[in-house]
Amino acid sequence: MGLISHNAAVTPAEKEHGHTITYTGGSIVINGAISSTTGITATGNTGVTTTADLTSTGGAISLAATTGTLSVGGDVITSVSGVGTGTVTLNAAAGQLSILSAGDITSGGTIELTGATGIVTAGDILTTGADVNFNSATTLSGNIAINTGSGPGTIGFDSTLGSGNTSTKLS
Known about the structure:
Low-confidence stretches: 1-9
Distance between the termini: 42 Å
């Protein structure tokens, strides 16, 4: 399958149906905001790129690139004003996971970040008491804040953590 490109916001009527939004294909580019009440899944065989916000108030968000890079340039949200428990899974199975400064993650559930050739991040992360797991070598490319809220959440780095001239606030 070739390029799948999403360039427009999901309509209110589509949102009201509550269907999970699922994309599977060669290379997936999401340039328009997506909002769902049940979850969002995108698996690209050669890569996934987002430049717009992805919001799921009732389910998980899972983005995966099986052979290419995964680039997140818009917010990834599963908790709005503290409501929502969906998890966030970002997995570049054979490439790099890049989270740009505009790619903040706000989640009501656990966040799992994996990049086979590493994670490069400049995006802030906020959970409502859930864990944040960096499952690969991680490089900070900008100033970031990681906050697990007032609950029992932990921040885990399963490999090395490096940074240039950046600062990190962990709480």
